[in-house]
Structure formats: structure tokens, C-alpha cells
Amino acid sequence: MREILxxxxxxxxxxxxxxxxxxxxxxxxxxxxxxxxxxxxxxxLTGPRWADFPHSLTLEDExxxxxxxxxxxxxxxxxxxxxxxxxxRGRVELGLSRARQVPARKLGPAASLGAAxxxxxxxxxxxxxxxxxxxxxxxxxxxxxxxxxxxxxxxLVARARLLLEALGGEGGDAESLPSAVHSLIGAGRGLTPSxxxxxxxxLAALGTRGRAWTAPAAILGGAxxxxxxxxxxISASFLRLALAALWPGPLAxxxxxxxxEDPGAAxxxxxxxxxxxxSSGADLATGFLAGLALGRPREVVGIxxxxxx
Length: 309
Known about the structure:
Mean pLDDT: 89
Number of helices: 12
Number of domains: 2
């Protein structure tokens, strides 16, 4: 029997609820997603690099999940101290009794938009240019006309701008929030579409902005929850984690470094986030930084905002 080394906050809470049936949802080279009876989000068998993610059950090596021989549709169950899954080659048993429980990561108060923010915005722009990202912070926060190019990228940027306006930018209209949110859910390329990751980051940022942003954040969260059926199950699972304020460790580290005005720590935390997927971490960071910039009465990434702070 192999041992699980650590459990993220969502995984820990789920596996403490007694015996439950499970199903292997999907299998990737470094991750196996598990659907647990009664749990709204998927749990992920991963390597130690992702131990600080709330839905993770981590094994001792990055290749561990692939070596288990699991396939989509395999079924099993959880108990207090074990996960047992029946495969075509036999039974896989994973011990839970020695697993370290990783606590939920909280996001502190909103950061100022100083040197740490600017360093992260610059690094994010560089990374997004290198990978040819569809959704870019500079474009989202700009009012300039988009240059001709990829129609999907142009549509994503336009929808993100409309959502930011609805949340509190110039010409904003709270009544348009749900439709603006729904236009982004499931939009974009990738296993977790860019629009979904952007929404998660934006929701995280608004949660740090204080009482003036409580109502817009609540409307945003409600619209995301109502629109979960517009995206795939894996991405909807990540959105549910965001709705429950269960954040990846690198995002919490980034928020703390920005609040402390520590450019070096902020960039290091951003790098941890950028390592998540091809563009998922970058899209999440775009939503988070855009949410911090929203309504601020100063120039941010070449944009002058106004409104609440």
C-alpha cells in the first residue's frame, strides 16, 4: 500500500466524512482526478509540487499518479484511513493515516499598487507574451482598441473588459454583471478555459478589497455559481473551490507579498502560480491583479482608473 503524504484543505474535509464511493474521473501524466460521492469538487492525486493546492492528495514523487495504473471509470471507496480503487490490473490502496493536513490558505487585505505590483505586472506581461496567451493583463486593463489578430483572444479581452466595467469601472452597471460573467464562463482554450481562471482570480481579489466591494463580490460569486454548467467538470471544480474561498498556496503567497510590498517575494510567488498549467496560473494571476487594480485612482499598467478603492 502506498501512502498519501499530504491532504489539501478540501481533500481533508472530504475524506473525514466516513466511507464514500468514488470514481476515477480523468487521468493525466501527473494528476488523477477523483470524483467523490457527495463532494462538489474533484480531488486530485498529484506529486509533491502541488501539495499546497486545496484539492490535492499528494504522493511522494511527481510520476506517482501515472504509475498507479488507474483509468477513467475505475471505481472504489474511501474510508477513514484508506482509499481503495479497483482497476483492470487489481486493487490500488492508498493509505491516509500518515498524511499531513495542509490548512486552508487565507487571503489578507488588499495590496497597494506599488513596486511589488508593478514587478508582478511586468513579469506576467513577459510570460504571457512568451506563451502567446489569449488573455493578457495589459490588454484587459487598457481602453485602447485591440489590434487585429486572433478572434478568440479579442473576444476574451472584450468580455473581460465588460465585466470589469460592470464591477466598478467607468460606465459600470451592476445589473449587467451576471451576463458579463456568463459570457466568460467556459470561454477560451485549455482544460480550464481562460475565462474561468480569470473569474477565479477576480473573485479572490475582490475578497481582499474590503466592505465597499462586498456586494459586487457577492453578485460575482452568485453569477459564477449559476453559470457552472457552462464549463467542463474539471474547470467547474476549480470554480467551486474559488467560491468556497479555498485558494492555491502560490496565490495566497502572492497576496501576502503584494501586501507587504516585497517585490522579490511577489515575483517568486508569481512564478509558482505561473507553473500551474500552460496558461491557467497566468490567467488566474491576470484576474487577481486586474481585481486589485479595479477602480483605483492611479495609473496601473498604463491605465488610469477611478472609483472605489
